[in-house]
Amino acid sequence: MPELLSQDTIENRLAELEDWHYRDSAVHKTWKLKGFLTAMSFANAIAHLANEADHHPDLSVHDYNRLTVRITTHSAGGVTENDLSMAERIERLRHGG
Ligand SMILES: C[C@H](O)[C@H](O)[C@H]1CNC2=NC(N)=NC(=O)C2=N1
C-alpha cells in the first residue's frame, strides 16, 4: 500500500504545479475552461488517463465551464505519491506534454 505523505512534502511538490492545493486529505484544482463541452472533454481525457493508471480522481464539471479535480488515495485515507503523480500527469495533459 502506498504511504501517506507529510503536509510538508505535499506542499513542496504542489509548489511546482500551478494552482494545486492541499485540503481535506486531498489535492485539488479548479480550471475555468472555454465552455461546457471543453470542460467535459478535459474531464474525459482525465478519465482515460486515470483508468490507465488505475487511480481515480473525483471529477466535477460545474458552474457551466469549470472543472474541479480532487485526488486522494482511498485505500490510504489521504495523499500518497500516486496522487501527486496523477496531478503532474494531468498538468502535462493540459499543456500538451
Ligand atoms: C483494485 C484497485 O487497484 C483499487 O481499488 C484502486 C483503484 N483506484 C483508486 N483510486 C484512488 N483514487 N484511490 C484508490 O485507493 C484506488 N484504488
Automatic annotation (TrEMBL):
A Pfam family: Pterin_4a
Entries under CDD domains matching the protein: PCD_DCoH
A GO BP annotation: tetrahydrobiopterin biosynthetic process
Reactions listed under catalytic activity: (4aS,6R)-4a-hydroxy-L-erythro-5,6,7,8-tetrahydrobiopterin = (6R)-L-erythro-6,7-dihydrobiopterin + H2O
GO MF annotations in UniProt: 4-alpha-hydroxytetrahydrobiopterin dehydratase activity
Residues that span the membrane, as ranges: none
InterPro entries cross-referenced by the UniProt entry: PCD_sf (IPR036428), Pterin_deHydtase (IPR001533)
Keywords: Lyase
Gene3D superfamilies found in the cross-reference section: Transcriptional coactivator/pterin dehydratase
Enzyme class, first EC level, given as a word: lyase
Listed EC numbers: 4.2.1.96
PANTHER family in alphabetical order: PTERIN-4-ALPHA-CARBINOLAMINE DEHYDRATASE
Family to which this protein belongs: Belongs to the pterin-4-alpha-carbinolamine dehydratase family.
Name this polypeptide is given: Putative pterin-4-alpha-carbinolamine dehydratase
Protein source organism: Actinopolyspora xinjiangensis
